Amino acid sequence: MPETPVILPEKQEITLILLLDALTDNALMIKVRDGDPDKLGLLFERYKRPLYGFFYGMNRSQELSEDLVQNTFFRILKYKHLFRGEGDFRTWMFHIARNVSHDHYRKDKIKAKDSLEDWQDKLGHNENRPNEIQHQEEQQMLLLAMDKLPVEKREILLMSKFQEKKYKEIGEIIGCSEGAVKVKVFRALQELKVIYQQLEKMM
Predict the structure, then answer these.
(1) 123-147 pLDDT, tens per residue?
(2) Contact between 30 and 83 (Cβ < 8 Å)
(3) Residue 96 structural domain
(4) CA angle, corner 16, sides to 11 and 19, nearest 5?
(5) What local confidence, expressed as pLDDT, does residue 192 receive?
(6) What DSSP character marks residue 37?
(7) Does residue 121 register a pLDDT over 70?
(8) How confident is the model at residue 113 (pLDDT cuts 50, 70, 90)?
(9) Is residue 124 included in any domain, yes or no?
(10) What is the CATH number of the domain that holds 86?
């Protein structure tokens, strides 16, 4: 009788990690859909930071953003049967994330906090930049201006400028054409510029 090869637990674990990393998002989600919910853990590790950044840009609350990331993945698990694998998982996920965010605002009517802490990292803060005090003041005014934008315009700027999503992907997420997204981004930037200039005059 041939001997059964022995695989060390450490080697087995490393092999499993490598195999999972090699799987595409869609392949992992299909496994989740077909009865292997454990695979959702890897998708969570891949996307918890981008989702957190998106939510934090909308509400300025660390605790709330973390809760909304969790809620997004709970909803992904709940509606896993709706994932067909034809489109991009990330687009599908952000569509769900938008719904989670909208549902939260509809239910609780929570106003975004005025605190600007921790936003320097999100907006590309660099401690070595010259004229740091002036830069911080400009960043704060930019954030104040962002807060004054309507939710829809703030959302599309966050996806376009901070999440660096393509217009086509944004269109798939919000349900409109690529051309319409370009117009929405342009108008949002124009309004942001006007608000920013008004704040400058007040300072």
Answers:
(1) 444 444 445 545 566 777 777 888 8
(2) yes
(3) 8-113
(4) 125
(5) 86
(6) G
(7) no
(8) very low
(9) no
(10) 1.10.1740.10
